[in-house]
Amino acid sequence: MELAHTTNTAAQNYSPELRELLFQYTLQLADTSLILGHRLSEWCGHGPILEQDLAMANISLDLLGETRSLYQYAAELEGQGRTEDDLAYLREAVEYRNPLLVEQPNGDFADTILRQFLFDGFHYLLLKKLQNCSDQRLAAIATKSFKEASYHLKWSSEWVIRLGDGTEESKRRIEKALDRLWRYSGELFQMTPVEQELHKAGFLPDYAQLKQQWDEHVAKVFAEATLEVPQNVFMQLGGKTGMHTEHLGYLLAELQYLQRAYPGLEW
Amino acid sequence: METIVEKSLEEQFEAKIANEIRIEPKDWMPEQYRKTLIRQISQHAHSEIVGMLPEGNWITRAPSLKRKAILLSKVQDEAGHGLYLYSAAETLGASRDQMIADLHSGKAKYSSIFNYPTLSWADIGAIGWLVDGAAIMNQVPLCRTSYGPYARAMVRVCKEESFHQRQGFEIMMTLCNGAPAQKKMAQEAFNRWWWPTLMMFGPKDDESPNTEQSMRWKIKRFTNDELRQRFVDMMVPQAEFLGLTVPDPDLKWNEAKNGYDFGEVNWEEFWNVVKGNGPCNKDRIQTRVKAHEEGAWVREAALAHAQKRSQREAANQAK
After folding, report:
1. CB A266: neighbour CB atoms within 10 A?
2. pTM for this predicted structure
């Protein structure tokens, strides 16, 4: 919340084009945390172990906190008087900019863990860099979220190892999850035109470099988990430019239900 | 010989109770005291866990990001309360697996209030305001209960519960100050939850089999009817403040007793829900059993991995 009071003289000096790019990108980050946070919150009360129910709720809350800071900033960048809730509750699926990975259904615990692990590695590496972003607000949000993301990555890495190197059944399940979800991992590192422009303008790191570090971490964890890193998998793209899987529409129908049923009310 | 030792232990125990000294896990205690506590604490833990479900039902539909975060964090607090209460029961020799098995088989009870459905967003407000309000009434005296680990767990639980109650009241206030559709939603939720909440204090004193012994052992500090009366006296002015109508035609102020007279709880409904015939009893237990059964392979994997790991460490140390 205190972020809202940070003076950001840089933002006021942005050209309209740059402002628009930063708005689009901030929205993409916010959508991503919201959708994944929402998915994790679906587990609440249904986890396999009480302690893990708590852990997933914690991660979901971290992501929701990040979401709110990002939407608040996006709304300011846009300057059209929209609020964080307008951005979350009143946009259609095709306007959402999250990568496909995070909207995939929870499946079983192995699917949820693997989805989290693939994302956490990217999120951690990206936030680490964004802490030094020349946009002060993004840097401040990243600094807060980076600490949380470090914990998320530790948690999901440990679970990948437990499930891979646990029982025959857990190994079969995590391998099945890999078969389902690996094809969505490439999109995380595929730069959209907005990301490319912001990279050129010096706001974003080189994703190829992040990808290399991500590959190293995945290889290390998979080795410990006795899992093979999938090779030559065709990567599904599109979420970050609005071409989603069919799952997102249902998620949003649930998430947006009250705001859509009773337009314009305060809750 | 044995009887003399037992007698003196019992006298020491009674002396501690009389002098308000806490009973701790390693202290001698009568078997019935232990059993009563395990029953009560595990029932309380189960209520927290089952209680996650009716509110969890609205996490994905919360109407704003702020409400969503608050609700998720509240339901998460309940999971945390469940954890410390299971741990408190474990100090009495109960195992978590057994307690959970008893919940799933129907042998152990949990608060009947969670067998009612949450039909609108206003139910989330009503639960926080009324149900958590009643829980606080029941639980604040438990912070002084005679068994140490239970009393200490309750201190923490009560702090969080009072935050929960405030957020429930705030949801109700927002709805009551909102559009007519929101106010209607609030009144309907109030109508649904008022009577079941009064049932949370348990049967009438003359029909409560465990009260007398529990009062003597200072596990319980007030009777069911005393707490129910206090609750009504506290909530009626709050309902008036919100502009809500209490769904009880017999409710009226009684100057002589300095409290409200109120209508008779529908005890037939109360006993029916206790027996398993409430609107959601079957769903709640099925949901818990499903989560537990579907999680079995995860728990097995975690255990198998921990064993592999400790074997490897032992082998490395042997080298």
Report:
1. 12
2. 0.94
